[in-house]
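Batch job 17 of 40 flagged for manual review because the log was empty.
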Amino acid sequence: MNFPSARFACAAGLRVELLGDSWIAYSPLSGETMMLNDESAAVLEVLREAPGDIASVSRTLAADLDADPAELMERIAPAWSLLIDNGLVVEGGASPA
């Protein structure tokens, strides 16, 4: 699977909240609210701290979970694509305030 090597950050104005057992996110780029799974919410949490690519995010999450970064990268790949496609993360080196 090919992953973009560009660095991504959370979109400016992104709002993420826990609602029961699920996560919801408001995308300022689309004006839509969507449900997220735990993997997607974890990726956003890491990208809120610093911009990164899928490899760096996987390493950060793997360290937190004591997991293999390569296996975690495959696990979060669908979440990564969803976040990019729906404008929740944007390409660029600057994190939002």
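Reviewer: the log was empty due to a logging misconfiguration, but the result itself is present. The two ends are 32 Å apart (CA to CA). Unflagging and moving on to job 18.
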